[in-house]
């Protein structure tokens, strides 16, 4: 079955309090792409965060001496107020080296700068935080699709992360609703009849990366509809994608 | 523009010496999906490795005492001969802990077990190695498409890797030809006019993950055609995706 990744275009600049679902639906209807049962609605976190008001005015931030010191040591001179915001979103620092801050956020994601975003924020002296509860945001979208179109879809809230060992950024799933983020093939068999022991597929991350192909940072496309990927409806939420610290060799 | 991920179905079990390109073309023609200019042909490494004869008969392997010792300490008892093969493909061990071997391969990829594969190998006592030069394998596919269909495509050879911090496996790009594996947006601007400083997108990895949505391990689909993703033809090869050790905080 062919999987289609449909960009949701024509979405206006989003502001706190905006009805994200309604705006996306208008764009989808306009393009003749009403959601169908089994579709996966993928939305970047920045769109969600903006509508949810997860915006910080840096003029109200007073950096701590610790934030000042780290910022002064970064190449190009990071804004100490941004460092302060990052630290306020941080539960634990995984690496603090070469001007990079790789942290574990309050919700448990391991990522650079606690996901605090300085681009496309809508203004100077402004940064955007990750949504407070991306699983809840995704669930809200699933419920809104059901109310508006009468069909069940899955929803994924994505963010763009760097990765150890590899250059470049890729989109990952933060929040997930309506599907299990993991596809567990253990107990199944390969084509030679050998049991598949280690095969748990991070299907929500793969869907996020696929959607990222059409959600370009410089093009103002904050969402996509993935059609044709078969999944079992399920639960778990994006937190299922976070490896427990005791099983993680790299933090 | 909608991106389509077309599974290449009906591919027979592959054997050393098989003409992989010819077999994929027959399957594509049969399904009415002849490659078009700008398509991206994505093939999993196992298909490539099998055709290239990168198969090891474990009955010919004598494990070293080091391999025996590590194998004995793994949960479930890893086959010491497999450990020996992994070590022979390894340039440097990144982590050797909790029964896991995360290594840097001779070619520079950081992955578990040096990519040595025990599933869908075609027989017992058999493991499959990564292709010797996946960039060359990808270039061969690009050339074969040009010869057969008279159009320029890109090609990506993928493998399925685990990731630090996150559960589950996702497909990544090993070999790349006909396109730059990275999309460099630096120097461009966000919608607010702010310069995009850190935005280099690992587009080949995103394409690999997208193709992975239709290349299921239990379904015998070793390849996909991605259509509708715009890229600049370019070079670089999959090695461009490997972060240099001196810039890597996690090895």
Structural class of chain A, by secondary structure, is alpha+beta
**Oligomer description:** homodimer
Which stretches of chain A are low in confidence, meaning pLDDT under 50 for 5 or more residues running? none
Report the sheet-strand fraction of chain A: 25-35%
Provide the number of structural domains of chain A.
2
Average predicted confidence as pLDDT of chain A:
93
Element pattern of chain A in H and E = EHEHEHHEEEEHEEEEHE
How does the major sheet of chain A shape up?
5 strands, mixed
Largest interface: A-B, 70 and 70 residues
Distance between the termini of chain A: 39 Å
**CATH superfamily membership of the largest domain in chain A, which one?**
CofE-like
Helicity level of chain A: 10-25%
Shape of chain A: globular
Rg of chain A is 19 Å
CATH architecture of the largest domain in chain A: 2-Layer Sandwich
Reading side by side through the largest sheet of chain A, how are the strands ordered? 1-12-2-8-9
Descriptors:
homodimer; 251 residues; alpha+beta; 60s Ribosomal Protein L30, Chain: A; CofE-like fold; 2 domains; five-stranded mixed beta sheet; three-stranded antiparallel beta sheet; 6 helices
């Amino acid at each position: 079955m062919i999987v289609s990744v449909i960009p949701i275009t024509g979405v206006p600049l989003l502001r706190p309090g905006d009805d994200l679902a309604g705006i996306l639906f208008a764009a989808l209807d306009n393009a003749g792409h009403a959601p169908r049962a089994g579709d996966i609605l993928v939305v970047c976190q920045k769109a969600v965060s903006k509508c949810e008001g997860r915006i910080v005015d840096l003029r109200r931030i007073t950096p701590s001496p610790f934030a000042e010191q780290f910022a002064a040591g970064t190449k190009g001179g990071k804004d100490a107020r941004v460092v302060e915001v990052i630290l306020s979103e941080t539960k634990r620092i995984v690496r603090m080296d070469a001007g990079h801050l790789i942290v574990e956020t309050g919700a448990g994601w391991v990522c650079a700068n606690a996901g605090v975003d300085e681009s496309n924020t809508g203004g100077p002296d402004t940064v955007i935080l990750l949504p407070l509860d991306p699983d809840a945001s995704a669930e809200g979208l699933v419920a809104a699709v059901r109310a508006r179109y009468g069909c069940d879809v899955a929803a994924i809230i994505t963010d763009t992360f760097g990765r150890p060992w590899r250059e470049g950024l890729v989109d990952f799933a933060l929040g997930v609703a309506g599907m299990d983020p993991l596809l567990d093939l253990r107990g199944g068999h390969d084509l030679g009849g050998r049991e598949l022991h280690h095969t748990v597929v991070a299907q929500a991350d793969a869907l996020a990366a696929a959607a990222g192909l059409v959600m370009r940072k410089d093009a103002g496309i904050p969402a996509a509809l993935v059609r044709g990927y078969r999944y079992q409806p399920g639960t778990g939420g994006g937190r299922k994608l976070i490896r427990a610290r005791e099983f993680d060799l790299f933090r």
